Amino acid sequence: MSFQDKTLSTIDSKIILAERLQQSRQAAQAMASLTTDAKNTALGHLATLLRQEAQTLLQANRHDLDAAYEGNLQESLLQRLKLDESKINTLIEGTEQVIQLPDPSHRVLQRTQLDDGLILEQRSVPLGVIALIFESRPDVMPQVLALMLKSGNAVVFKGGQEATHSNRAMMALVDKLTQLAGLPAGWAQLIEGRKAVTELLNYPQYVDLVIPRGSNALVQHIMANTRIPVLGHADGVCHLYVHTSADIAKALAVVLDAKTHYPSACNALETLLLDAPLAETFLPMLSEAALAAGLTLFGCNQTRQILPHLAPVESWHTEYGELKLSIKLVDTVSEAISHINHYGSHHTDGILASDPSVIDTFLTQVDSANVYANASTRFADGFRYGLGAEIGISTSRTHARGPVGLQGLVTTQYRLTGQYHTVAPYSSGQRAFQHTLL
Asked: How far is residue 356's CA from residue 253's CA, in Å, rounded to a whole number?
């Protein structure tokens, strides 16, 4: 069955989607049984196909970009939509990195002897069927495919309409990979159309986890309209706090990197907190650098007394996703921490300082998935963490937090092996549990 046969342009019948998801469930069972060698072989094929099909992928992406320019797609989405050779090379490198990583599934996490001949094992097992709903970024698909292969899961993709050609080209690559590696049919599927999302969210019996990657509105909509567990983050309001003990020149370089390197990324800097005593020195330096970088600054009242040309900050909750940055002067590290915990999105926040005690206080008290000292927020990434890739960044406090790689795609299972043991003798006190760790 070709990709075009499997793709739904509209969901006219719930039966059609239910059949697709049933196939995903069956495929997940087969994926869970793959050996590590089989997974790594498939990953090798994926890396090779990405090399071989690079120009095809770029050509398909060019069709999407042309349509996006004509439709005046906002700049942040355009940046995420664009594929180039550098991104594809990073995808290949990430896939090859995943090959070298340990297989996260079917590991024995703990063995306990409950009694003579009664052994309990806690093992890691794949989650099952994961639905990824994303906007713009077609490079998400190969990253996720690599993670799904290594963890032994099945995946259902729902991409944005703006990336239709790119996503279809990626799925054509999946068809080739499935044949080369002998993977089960339906282990990776793509559904299309707005109606597909609404229907998909109604199938908790087939889908084990939904991961939304896109706007706050998308994430909030999914969370409010499904009984399926949702993993991800709604906002990327990231902060850097420059303490009085910081090296000013080095701090400025980190701030510029965090904001201007890739401003549409969810780990890009959105608010700069600056100790007030540094303002007279630091703000003019930042203003000059911002002018050269095409960066628009917004300031609090104190900031605007030093840089009167700045417009006021409208909301400290703002995620710009473009070359814009809010600035607030603070008097203490406690004030900076309070601001971050109140206005931030618990994604990635950092401090630039030399005082060890201040750094320790910040790292301990800031309640975010990623907390940094003297580093750009742009390091919050699965590939940069050595995870090979990421399925997304989670600000959740359960299951997985931060960049979610292989370890976030498995859960646990208890396996008990006995010799026809029954519970009655333990309830009556005839026998006692040993609970000996092995």
From this structure: 21
